[in-house]
Amino acid sequence: MRTELAALGGVIAFAFASMLAYRLTGARSSSGDLTGRGGSFVLGFWVRNWFYWLIRPLTRASIAIGLTPLFYNLFAVGCGLGSMVAYATGHFPSAGLLVFVSGIADVMDGEVARGTHAADARGAFLDSTLDRFTEFAAFAGLAFYFSSGWTAVAIVVALGGSLLVSYTRARGESLGVLCKVGLMQRAERMMLLGLGSILDPSVCASAGWIPGSVVTGVVVVIAAGTVWTSVYRTVWIARALRGR
After folding, report:
1. Mind listing the pLDDT tens digit for each residue in 195-210?
2. Cα distance between residue 40 and residue 107, in whole Å
């Protein structure tokens, strides 16, 4: 068994075991939906609260040693830059792992901010903006690796669609409309990209496909999903604003 598959299997087994413990102990996350993000299509409220409960020891340790939300913001960007290099050089499993770690760091910054009562407008702005830098870096690495052909076009569409999903929500909120509808939010994008990247070498070797085929398929799904979500949000917000 390949190392990345064994590691992924261990992580999945640990996740399900901790979910069972969370359910049986009746534990609850102390974090409310203070970000306004709510649950996404994949990460519903129960899964989100389980994850907050799971990382609570890390949150407390971070606060105890004085780590700040900005540290996790910058750490996530560093992971994004690392994934860019890994994608550009064809090291897909490493890139996928860095994508996942950047997502955890993104959650940690909000948890530390709330735990230290340091949440403010500046932090919210940095969090959202640096998330876009992190995502951009990963897609830039993919664009360098594939460089040409229809896969490169799909990468451009996926990146543009991802930015449009975020922009439509941000623009709607600036006009007084909170829009969280759609399937391909950042959590879904990062989970698909990270998982596909980790599985790519094993699946392609087993199926006799060209290396990168799984990642290509994931990028196509992200491209289609983000374009659909951004168009749907545009129509949804426009209807909500009608007559104002």
Report:
1. 999 999 999 999 999 9
2. 14
pLDDT for 49-70, tens place per residue?
888 889 999 999 999 999 999 9
Query: Is 114 inside a domain boundary?
Result: yes
Report the C-alpha gap between 147 and 155 in whole angstroms. Answer: 10
Residue 142's domain comprises 58-241
In a domain, 62, yes or no: yes
Instruction: Give the CA radius of gyration of the chain.
Output: 18
User: pLDDT class for 25, splitting at 50, 70, 90?
Assistant: confident
Structural domain includes residue 176: yes
204-208 long-range contacts, CB within 8 A, separation 24+: none
The more confidently predicted of residues 14 and 182 is 14
**CB contact at 8 A, 129 and 76:** no
Answer whether residue 222 is part of any domain: yes
pLDDT in tens, 158-185: 999 999 999 999 999 989 988 888 888 8
Q: What is the CATH number of the domain that holds 71?
A: 1.20.120.1760
